[in-house]
Amino acid sequence: MRGVDVSGWQSLAGADYSGAHAAGDGFVICKLSQGESASKKGIAHARKALEALLPTGAYHFATPLRRGLRTWRPVEQADVFCAAVERAGILGTIWPDELGPRLWLDMEWQSFGKTKEGRERGKAFRRQFRPSEVMLWTRAFIARVQDELGERCGIYTGRSYVRYRYLGNPELALFDLWLASYVKVGPERTDVPTRRPDAVALSDGSWWEPRIWQWTGHGSVPWYRGGNGNIDRNLLVRQRAEVV
């Protein structure tokens, strides 16, 4: 099943969610919070999608705060996300993947800008939060969300983040994966890949299978700004059968 995800970059007025089903899109995942701040625009996107009866999920963008690197606090950020999910009215609504989560933690590379100061801050941040600490942070955030909301929470991330920030920790396989792994799209930006993404290799030789695949950040759908706006495209993928 095809779907999209939206954040503050997407125009609220330009999103006609009532046209999503006719275009073959079966879900949307909205960014509802970042750091310790909720996104009013993301919550509005979610409510608008729910009004159009489009299955709606949510994600939180984990980020360090301006008050200092050590304030990158998992429980506090999880609480902000939980409150935003409840405000959006997502809980109790239909999600197309009965076995998978609709709530996600976005773990990706942090940018502090391209200036010399920004690069130094980035290095300091990576030194302070070593891979073992990133795993601890992830576990704490997800545990809090699941305890508070009673729903599973998965991880959105990419291969390089798994390799360098998680060091391929086999524990990742305990969580559902929403994988960012981009392929080329044609000039119309509506192409749907015919293949499915490769699983992510973990350090013990096991594989982390994606449940959702984000294949481009520059896609196009007719119901968003008449097909002229950039939007992330995703695919719910079937899990491979286990070999007995």
Structural overview:
The chain has 244 residues and is α/β, with parallel strands linked by helices. It contains 5 helices and 11 strands; from the N terminus they run βββαβαβααβαβββββ. The chain has helices at residues 40-51, 74-88, 116-128, 131-149, 159-164, and strands at residues 2-6, 25-34, 37-38, 56-61, 103-106, 153-158, 177-180, 200-201, 207-208, 210-219, 231-236. A hairpin with a 5-residue loop joins strand 8 (200-201) and strand 9 (207-208). The chain is globular and about 45 Å long. The protein has one domain: Glycosidases (TIM Barrel, Alpha-Beta Barrel). An 8-stranded mixed beta barrel has the order 1-2-4-5-6-7-10-11. The model has no long low-confidence stretch (mean pLDDT 90). The two termini are 27 Å apart. The relative contact order is 0.16. The longest helix has 19 residues, at 131-149.
CATH class identity: Alpha Beta
Strand order, biggest sheet?
A: 1-2-4-5-6-7-10-11
Structural class: alpha/beta
The total of beta strands comes to: 11
- CATH level 4 superfamily: Glycosidases
CATH architecture descriptor text = Alpha-Beta Barrel
Beta-strand fraction estimate: 15-25%
Shape descriptor reads: globular
Kindly identify the CATH topology.
TIM Barrel
SSE topology string: EEEHEHEHHEHEEEEE
Total domain units: 1
Can you give the mean pLDDT?
90
Uncertain segments are none
The radius of gyration computed from the alpha-carbon positions, rounded to a whole number of angstroms, is: 18 Å
Distance between the termini: 27 Å
Largest sheet: 8 strands, mixed, barrel
Count of discrete alpha- or pi-helical segments spanning 4 or more residues: 5
- Helix content percent band: 25-40%
